[in-house]
Amino acid sequence: MATNYLKSYPLTLLTAVVVVALSLLPIGGPELTRDVPFADKWTHMVMYGGLTSVLWLEYWRCHRRLSWRRVAVGAVAVPILMSGTLELMQAYCTTYRSGEWMDLLANSAGVCIGAVLGLSVLRRWRRHDG
Asked: Nearest-CA neighbor of 114 among 66, 56, 53?
């Protein structure tokens, strides 16, 4: 089953690994985001919006019929749960990161934006496929 996901969703899994690495490795810092208001929150939204968008595109590539239950769980709930888990890991498993509720909120907003983008692309593709 794991190899099936690896074959079906390679870009999603790669994107998830990048998000995990960026969330847990000691890279970046306040000096990188000092000049842009809420740059950290925008970064969180882009990371999770990108992850969710890639997931939607690969879902559509692998499945011609939309299963709302699968999409709700796999493309919305799982990335939000992943986000919450990473925020907890930042708070309790690292000394150089902090878990924040506002980060979780920004991540969740990114997931919702990515889901809306994914759904709109899916609907356009569906119209073109006939």
From this structure: 53
- Return the structure tokens found at 57: 């595109």
Q: What is the pLDDT of residues 62-104, one digit of tens each?
A: 887 878 888 888 889 999 999 999 999 999 999 998 899 999 9
The structural domains of the chain, with segments of one domain joined by +, span 40-130
Structure tokens, 38: 């809420």
Nearest to 82 by CA among 38, 19, 4: 19
User: What pLDDT, on a 0 to 100 scale, did the predictor assign at position 31?
Assistant: 61
Instruction: Return the H-helix or E-strand segment holding 96.
Output: none
d(CA 10, CA 27): 25
Task: Check residue 35 and report its DSSP letter.
Answer: T
